Amino acid sequence: MREMTNGKMSKATGANTNTEKQTDTSPADMNEAYRRGCKLLHEKCKAIQRSNERLVFRLHKVRKMTKTRMRDVELLKARLDSHHDDWRTAPDPTDIKEEGEE
Predict the structure, then answer these.
(1) Helix spans in 9-26 (H)
(2) Which one of 12, 46, 68, 97 is most buried, by most CB atoms within 10 A?
(3) How far apart are CA 14 and CA 1, in angstroms?
(4) Start-to-end C-alpha separation, the chain
């Protein structure tokens, strides 16, 4: 690029070309880059939100399964007690050693 001084054309200095290259991007290009960045950020946010929703769904499912299991155990205990089963004093099957084991 050339610079006009005193009516004569001369070569521009290196400092001038660097500043011109930095401001060479037009506002439309900057707006487009900004839009692309916003769109990418929006997509990442949506992906994180979907992941969080899946985790919340799984958490609710596990809580429901745990609650159901606890209720089933309580019902089984009540039923065994109503039959006068001796299950509370029975030895734990994991404590019983099979023959040949020490």
Answers:
(1) 14-22
(2) 12
(3) 10
(4) 93
Is the model's pTM score more than 0.90? no
Exposure class string for 20-32: b at 16+ Cβ within 10 A, else e? eeeeeeeeeeeee
Lookup result for tokens 């734990």: 92
Q: Which amino acid is at 74?
A: E
Radius of gyration of the chain measured on its C-alpha atoms: 38
SS3 of 75-95: HHHHHHHHCCCCCCCCCCCCC
Cα distances (angstroms) measured from residue 21 to each of 26, 61, 77, 80, 88: 11, 58, 81, 85, 85
